[in-house]
């Protein structure tokens, strides 16, 4: 069963509650893009937004930390998240970081920038719930999907793990089918949901393709 997680980065920040409530019955959860202006060249939002949204929906919160030194913030994010994903490139002691996420009762994921090979995950894979493959350079929504992602998914599949493979960046009705065939099962979708005139129709269209 394919899962769809709209990224609130593409929603209307002047009325997040309305945008989330509008689609919440048709989605598997919401993706939260946390950017610090250091790991990525952009700043998005942080604890006050997550803590406010946690009060208005019980849906799964999939928190994507695009920040340096994520260990300093895991305990606080764990209180408002169901899953926490850190970047391979931002983490020195990845096994320790993943253990911390689990200790605070969250699912744990590692995200890879487009240039980072999946082979680097070999030793950490048994400890992960998900791998988040970035199909754009992290930092901004609305970017063009990077085509080499398909091959990267196949390579991760070949590593014989049951880990959930989630794709983030430029996912839309034109590429979701091919991504599923390559082996991905979860999708972050920002612009192709919230920047359309009918977000629920966009979600249905993607589910109908599969
Ligand atoms: O992590 C991200 C960017 O760093 C976002 O989750 C991603 O870009 C989703 O937005 P879109 O579907 O518009 O590409
Ligand atoms: Co993201």
Automatic annotation (TrEMBL):
Pathway: Carbohydrate degradation. GO terms for molecular function: D-ribulose-phosphate 3-epimerase activity; metal ion binding. Belongs to the ribulose-phosphate 3-epimerase family. InterPro entries: Aldolase_TIM, Ribul_P_3_epim, Ribul_P_3_epim-like, RibuloseP-bd_barrel. One of its GO terms (cellular component) is cytoplasm. Catalyzes the reversible epimerization of D-ribulose 5-phosphate to D-xylulose 5-phosphate. GO terms for biological process: pentose catabolic process; pentose-phosphate shunt. This is Ribulose-phosphate 3-epimerase. Its EC number is 5.1.3.1. The keyword tRNA processing does not apply. A divalent metal cation binds at residues 31, 33, 64, 168. Binds 1 divalent metal cation per subunit. The active site is at residues 33, 168. Gene3D superfamilies: Aldolase class I (3.20.20.70). The lineage of its organism: Bacteria, Thermotogati, Thermotogota, Thermotogae, Petrotogales.
């Amino acid at each position: 069963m394919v899962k769809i997680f709209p990224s609130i980065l593409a929603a209307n920040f002047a009325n997040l509650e309305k945008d989330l409530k509008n689609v919440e019955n048709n989605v598997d959860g919401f993706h939260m893009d946390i950017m610090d202006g250091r790991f990525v060249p952009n700043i998005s939002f942080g604890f006050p937004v997550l803590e406010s949204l946690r009060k208005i929906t019980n849906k799964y919160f999939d928190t994507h930390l695009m920040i340096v030194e994520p260990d300093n913030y895991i305990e606080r994010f764990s209180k408002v998240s169901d899953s926490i994903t850190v970047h391979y490139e931002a983490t020195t002691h990845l096994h320790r970081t993943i253990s911390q996420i689990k200790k605070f009762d969250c699912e744990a994921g590692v995200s890879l920038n487009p240039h980072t090979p999946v082979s680097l995950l070999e030793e950490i894979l048994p400890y992960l719930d998900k791998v988040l493959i970035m199909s754009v350079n992290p930092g901004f929504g609305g970017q063009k999907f990077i085509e080499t992602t398909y091959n990267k998914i196949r390579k991760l599949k070949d590593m014989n793990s049951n880990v959930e493979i989630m794709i983030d960046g430029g996912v839309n009705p034109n590429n979701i089918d091919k991504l599923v065939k390559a082996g991905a099962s979860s999708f972050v979708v920002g612009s192709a949901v919230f920047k359309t005139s009918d977000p629920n129709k966009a979600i249905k269209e993607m589910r109908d393709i599969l």
